[in-house]
Amino acid sequence: MATGEDRSWRIWYQSFTDPGVDAPYFGRLTSRIEGLADPGFEVVVHGMTPGDRHLHRLSELRCSMQAVRNAIAAQEEGYDAFVIGHFQEPGLAEARAAVDIPVIGLGESTMLHACTLGRKIALVTISPVFVPYHEEQIVRHGLQQRVIAVRAVDAEVADFNRAFTEPELYRRMKEEFSQQLRPLLELGVDVVIPAGGYPMLLFAGERSFGLGGAVVLDGLPVAVMAAETAVRLRRLNGTGASRAPGSALPSEPALREFLDAM
């Protein structure tokens, strides 16, 4: 890591979408993420081809391997942090064990910040397919007593892409999302997280978006600012990921074997 105060600290933001196929979303995501960077930081949004479009565990696995490979590439190219910008964040633990730069997960950072805003948290995901994925994710992060519910809208990726430019479709999707919030209020939920980059970006223009006093949390700025904080802490006192035996950096042969398999 360079020490010059005049340099820009670079963050690699890894989307799981295809910049070509998902152009309406990817272009807006890039503009939004880049605009969140504090002075002295540059956030570069990267996609992957093919993207994660099939809503299946095999697609999640494939994309997780690409994400880990890209985290390694980010470190080699001199980036200072890496963000997995897919809420389910497959490959998060493996990426952290593969590189020495900070690795931030969109889902983990958003849920942890939500714990500072309210006692009971819920997720609303973009498809019923992802409900068990998120339930497993919640357990993995040890947040079962805080993230108490996962609900889903039933929308296609194409719907989100169109809703960015079609006001009537946007209104309908916002209403469907709000309908998922109402039963959560009866459970005493304080914070609702749109579990995915698509709904986070779609509703980003809603100032103080909420219902019945519950907060709807946009995780995109949370993840970017968490990455910036991780870089600052590393510069300040060397704070980084645990390197206990289960999280140790790979040996050179182990790293080579992984990259060769890709």
From TrEMBL:
Alphabetized Gene3D superfamilies for the sequence: 3.40.50.12500
Pfam families the UniProt entry points to: Asp_Glu_race
Family matches, as InterPro entries: Asp/Glu/hydantoin_racemase (IPR015942), Hydantoin_racemase-like (IPR052186), Iso_Racemase_Enz_sf (IPR053714)
GO molecular function list: amino-acid racemase activity
Segments crossing the lipid bilayer: none
Family, per entry: Belongs to the HyuE racemase family.
Name recorded for this polypeptide: Asp/Glu/hydantoin racemase
Natural source organism: Kitasatospora atroaurantiaca
